[in-house]
Write a structure and sequence with these properties.
Number of helices: 12
Distance between the termini: 22 Å
Order of helices and strands: HEEEEHEEEEHHHHHHHHHH
Helix content: 25-40%
Radius of gyration: 24 Å
CATH superfamily of the largest domain: Tetratricopeptide repeat domain
CATH class of the largest domain: Mainly Alpha
Length: about 400
């Protein structure tokens, strides 16, 4: 039997993240991905760059390995939630920018931020300039930066976003496209992307007040600020990283502990809280504790009823527990709420197969119609075609 759980990937729901999916949830056919590997981004934007500063360290590197190539004496440690930020100041940095490296509580490098309060002229970097020309800004706004080395008044800024299968890179630039100045660049593994946008208020303030000196009265409220507690978001991202093996090692133990911490800290929005219980349930599944997984998923549905993804995964948990009636009811409800939910159609067909072959055939054929042309489903498509052929005989 296949593992038919769906685990969604997390993304920032802000409007300027419109190219990605909201609230770390994926809908439609992209729910076909299993929970063992991160789903692929639907469309990868251009990402070529000759600005190599973000490659000064490799994401997912351990802190101990990082410190072997970056002298600890030159780094300033700062708290970053339950993790740590190591800062390499501009006056010592080869890039002439403030370099910040963020490690989670497990000592894994999850994000990098470079800040240029005086601006970095992008004219010597034609490859990156060409990439930015191909991208549409995810956000445009006015920003005054007092320390710009150029005397020109360039206050029209834009945030660009690109990335690969598991990481997201963002550039905050100032000025017209033909003469852009880089103010900030960040690179992070995707579960943490919400916490590393250069438009977050704490990062914009590094540009406005590079020495940490803020005026007595602050009237500028520019920049995104989360309503959700930072510790909860940080632990949720940590759970996603461990559960979906973003850094190469899958750990359901770490994921479960992280989601529990996120729930304990609390979420302001019930969608986040429901999803934390859901993801915790999937972590318990990975640990083979299906009764506990059922409890978490039912708690998730109590907070946010009628969520197809959770119903589908709960149905699979019921199947694992031998509760065929509740499994069938969960799959039925999932496809009723979302008729084009392909993996739930497959699960429903499999549940019907022993007792109602005709209904199973119908559901299998619906599944095949929904996944036609999806390469990642090739193996399951072949299996379903064989099952349909056998059932019709």
């Amino acid at each position: 039997m296949y593992a038919h759980f769906v685990n969604q990937r997390s993304h920032d729901p802000h409007t300027f993240r419109a190219l990605l999916l909201q609230l770390w949830m994926v809908c439609g056919l992209f729910l076909l991905n299993g929970c063992d590997t991160p789903p692929k981004k639907p469309i990868l934007p251009p990402s070529e760059s000759d600005l190599v500063l973000l490659n000064s360290a490799t994401l997912c590197t351990s802190k101990s390995a990082f410190l072997k190539t970056h002298p600890p004496s030159s780094l300033t440690p700062q708290e970053w939630g339950t993790g740590q930020e190591l800062v390499f100041p501009a006056d010592q940095s080869p890039s002439h920018g403030d370099e910040s490296y963020f490690f989670d509580e497990d000592g894994v490098l999850v994000g990098i931020v470079f800040t240029y309060p005086s601006g970095l002229d992008l004219h010597p970097y034609p490859v990156l300039r060409h990439t930015l020309m191909q991208l549409k800004p995810t956000l445009e706004f006015y920003l005054n930066v007092a320390n710009l080395s150029s005397g020109a008044s360039m206050d029209s800024s834009a945030l660009y976003e690109t990335g690969d299968e598991k990481t997201t890179t963002q550039y905050l630039v100032l000025g017209p496209r033909e003469h852009q100045t880089l103010l900030q660049a960040s690179r992070t593994i995707d579960p943490y992307v919400r916490l590393f946008s250069p438009y977050r208020r704490e990062f914009l303030e590094r540009l406005r007040y590079p020495r940490g000196q803020k005026p007595g009265q602050q009237l500028d409220s520019q920049g995104a600020e989360d309503k959700e507690p930072f510790p909860s978001l940080q632990q949720f991202a940590r759970g996603q990283t461990a559960q979906l093996s973003y850094c190469g090692i899958q750990s359901y133990d770490t994921a479960a502990a992280a989601y529990q911490k996120a729930i304990a800290t609390g979420f302001a929005n019930k969608v986040w809280l429901a999803e934390a219980h859901h993801k915790l349930g999937l972590a318990w599944v990975g640990k083979g504790q299906h009764e506990t997984a059922k409890t978490e998923m039912l708690q998730s549905l109590a907070i946010r009823p009628n969520t197809p993804e959770i119903l589908n995964n709960l149905g699979t948990v019921y199947s694992k527990l031998g509760d065929k009636a509740n499994a069938l009811a969960s799959f039925e409800k999932a496809v009723t709420l979302r008729p084009n939910y392909a993996i739930a159609r497959y699960n429903l067909a499999e549940a019907y197969e022993p007792t109602n072959p005709k209904r199973a055939i119908s559901e299998y054929e619906t599944y095949l119609a929904l996944v036609q042309g999806i390469p990642d489903e090739a193996n399951r498509i072949a299996l379903v075609q064989q099952r349909v052929k056998t059932l019709k005989q």
